[in-house]
Design a protein that fits this description.
Elements: H1 8-17, H2 22-39, E1 47-50, H3 56-63, E2 69-73, H4 76-85, E3 91-92, E4 105-111, H5 121-132, E5 133-144, H6 152-156, H7 165-173, E6 177-185, H8 190-204, H9 217-235, E7 245-252
Parallel strand pairs: 1-2, 1-4, 2-3, 4-5
Antiparallel strand pairs: 5-7, 6-7
Length: 254
């Protein structure tokens, strides 16, 4: 896989934003509301975050959740931030050729990585994910959804594809992982996103740019509030039929 997997310049923006920016906070809440019921009662002796970026999410898993997660990423730029933050056991690794034995992990997470693979390459990545998971191991995935929502940020971050629920589930099932739950997320803000990405941005014709720049505190509260509502809805066991992201929880078939 080429070294321009993700724009190296984006790591600095992410590192500045991912603790407090509304999107990161809200999407973490949604992810944990979906994941926690499946973690309950499981013993996680060893986990892997495949494509950890700066490592901040792995740090949360290690420190707040007490999950023994190994953060792995192909980019030394991302891992540099991870080491500076004190993330434990960071590993430089390609998700399409993971340097781990088969059945090594009870839990594998891949958060916002798939969109950076060229169309078709996700099958190889899923094959590796399934290989390193032990039978019955838990699989957690989040990725960008719906091609129509490609934006200036998508271009800036080197995003190469987006998924529908049907295509994502089909690719996962083909590698021997059973889907336990899959829902769209970041759904309530979809009308605003569509206006911005399909109408406003094309009118302005500005060059690609990061979309994780800080916004006014009042706007941050409004946007986070929308995601908090979604987290409550998803936590009650309900899914969304459309949205800007997809979250999938699966389990390797025994």
């Amino acid at each position: 896989m080429s070294h321009d997997f993700m724009n190296p310049a984006e790591f600095a923006n992410i590192a500045l934003s991912e603790r407090d920016f509304w999107w990161y906070r809200g999407m973490r809440e949604i992810l944990f509301r979906m994941l926690d019921p499946y973690l309950a009662g499981r013993t996680i002796a060893r986990g892997l975050e495949a494509g950890c970026g700066t490592g901040y999410f792995s740090l949360l898993l290690q420190k707040e959740r007490r999950l023994p997660v190994i953060p792995a990423d192909i980019s030394w730029e991302g891992l540099r931030y991870a080491r500076e933050m004190g993330v434990e056991r960071p590993v430089e690794a390609d998700i399409m050729d993971l340097p781990f034995a088969g059945g090594s992990f009870d839990l594998l997470l891949s958060i916002d990585v798939l969109a950076h693979l060229k169309p078709g390459e996700e099958h190889r990545a899923f094959g590796e994910f399934a290989r390193v998971l032990r039978p019955g191991g838990l699989f957690v995935l989040r990725t960008s959804a719906l091609d129509i929502l490609r934006s200036r940020h998508s271009q800036f971050a080197f995003e190469r594809q987006r998924f529908t629920r049907r295509r994502l589930m089909g690719s996962v099932v083909a590698t021997g992982i059973r889907v336990l739950r899959c829902s769209y997320a970041n759904s309530l803000l979809l009308p605003a996103a569509f206006f911005k990405f399909r109408i406003w941005e094309p009118l302005l014709r500005r060059p690609p740019a990061s979309g994780v720049q800080p916004v006014a505190p009042w706007l941050d509260r409004i946007f986070h509030g929308a995601l908090a509502l979604e987290a409550a809805w998803i936590g009650a066991g309900r899914n969304f039929p459309i949205g800007q992201s997809l979250v999938l929880i699966g389990e390797k078939i025994v």
